[in-house]
Each structure stands twice: as C-alpha cells, then as structure tokens.
Amino acid sequence: MDFTFIGGDVTLDLAGTLQQRRTEPRDLLDRPTALAAWAVAAGLVDAPPEVDGAALASALDLREALYRLAVTRPALDARDRATLNRFAAGSPVNVTLSADGDVRRVGDIDAVLATVARSGVALLGGVDAERIRECEAQPCTRLYLDASRRGGRRWCDMRGCGNRAKAAAFRARRHD
C-alpha cells in the first residue's frame, strides 16, 4: 500500500487516509493490516503492531473526529473533542535511543493511536491550527499545514493536485 505523508503533521496524514470524501471515497485503511502498515510508514513504530477489527474501528473513529475537528475549527464539537481526548489519554509509543544511536519506536496499536491523538491535541490547540487547509483541487479532500510565507497555498501537493490544477487552467486558457 502506498501512503502519502504530505499533511505536515501525522494527524492530518491519518485524516488523509480517506481520500475523495465527498465524491468517491477511497479508504486506504480498509483492513487491519493496512492500519498496521500505515503506522510503520508514518514512522510511528518500527514494526507493524497487531491490529484486529475492533482496533481498526477505533482508529477510524479517531480519524473522523480529527478530520471534523480540523475542518470545523474554531467550533470544536464536544463529542469529537471527547473522542480525541480519550485517545490522547492513553500511553504513547515508547521511543528510546539505542547504543548505536538509532531511535527505536515500540508500541501496540493503542500506543500508536495515543501518539497520533496527542499530536492532534497539540496541533488543534496550538498556533498552527490556523494554518490547516483542505486541498482546493477537486475531488481531493486532503488536509495539510500551509507553511507558505503568505499562507496562500492552495493544494495539498504541487506534484499531484497542484500540477493537475495548473495544467487544467492552462488548457482552459488555450481553448478560449
């Protein structure tokens, strides 16, 4: 499974695992093994944690709460906040520095979700919350942190959505 990590924060990258939300939703976390693979690809743990159907359902609940909180801020729904806070209260992934200087990340799926939720609390409750954007390219619905100098970034990724939008605008100008 090819995951993209372009959100600028693991919270937004998790929310982006449900693509094209308003048209033809494509869920990248469609089975427990996909969630385990995402946790490794996101750099949260070194080895895939065991994930069952209940853990996958929990992760999807967290993902949807994070998405709604990010797009509706500053009006933060109490139920979504409670979901986020419940996950954030868990024990996060254990991070250690080995003798050879490597970082080791170990944890089960609950620790992975707690780590993501803690990142979500910090993001949504911090100064960067104002920089969360949703991609303007249709049908993309990915969220990202706009780190541009003027805060005018329009697309989640220039190589994908931005390039397609600019090419379409160019073609439209040529046909006029």
List the helices and strands and how they pair.
Blueprint: H1 10-15, E1 18-19, E2 26-27, H2 32-41, H3 53-72, H4 78-88, E3 94-97, E4 103-106, H5 109-124, E5 132-134, E6 143-145, H6 158-175
Antiparallel strand pairs: 1-2, 3-4, 5-6
Summarize the structure.
This protein is mainly alpha-helical and 176 residues long. It has helices at 10-15, 32-41, 53-72, 78-88, 109-124, 158-175, and strands at residues 18-19, 26-27, 94-97, 103-106, 132-134, 143-145.
State which percent range the strand residues make up: 5-15%
Order of adjacent strands in the largest pleated sheet: 1-2
Number of strands: 6
The arrangement of helices and strands along the chain is HEEHHHEEHEEH
- What's the quaternary structure here? single chain
For the sheet with most strands, the description reads: 2 strands, antiparallel
CATH architecture annotation: Orthogonal Bundle
